Task: inverse folding
């Protein structure tokens, strides 16, 4: 049986591979979870998904999720949070954007919410703050691929 997360992670990898003009190496980050990966040895991505069909999409972060992302940041040059918003699109946040939404004090349970009106960009807020600028649907995979070049 195919697990739900495998479908959502698959769309992330497909867009990365088809958007890249060069070879990509993708492997799991060495952890017990199934959400984090290493691309080309220096870039980490942490994937969350929401199966919800329509806006807003909410993503829960346990303390260990945030600790894993922090560990990735200490071991890799670049780290991105990739939020798959149902079948609507993908929100990509670099580490600095993530820290605006979820600060360095990791609560037991925190959240990030992405919302988008028709033909608009994503508004993104979290337990600890919100982004001033909106995130475009085309930011993924551009943001990730830009650091791989």
Result:
């Amino acid at each position: 049986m195919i697990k739900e997360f495998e479908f959502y992670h698959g769309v992330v990898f497909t867009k990365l591979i088809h958007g890249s003009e060069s070879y990509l190496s993708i492997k799991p980050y060495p952890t017990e979870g199934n959400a984090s990966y290493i691309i080309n040895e220096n870039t980490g991505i942490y994937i969350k998904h929401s199966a919800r069909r329509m806006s807003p999409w909410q993503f829960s972060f346990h303390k260990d999720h945030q600790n894993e992302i922090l560990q990735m940041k200490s071991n890799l040059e670049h780290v991105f949070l990739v939020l798959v918003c149902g079948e609507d699109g993908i929100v990509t946040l670099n580490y600095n954007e993530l820290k605006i939404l979820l600060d360095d004090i990791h609560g037991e349970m925190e959240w990030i919410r992405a919302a988008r009106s028709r033909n608009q960009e994503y508004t993104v807020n979290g337990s600890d703050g919100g982004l001033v600028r909106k995130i475009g649907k085309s930011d993924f995979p551009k943001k990730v691929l830009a650091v791989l070049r």
In short: The helical segments are 4-19, 63-75, 95-101, 139-148. The chain is about 30% helix and 30% strand. The longest strand covers residues 43-50.
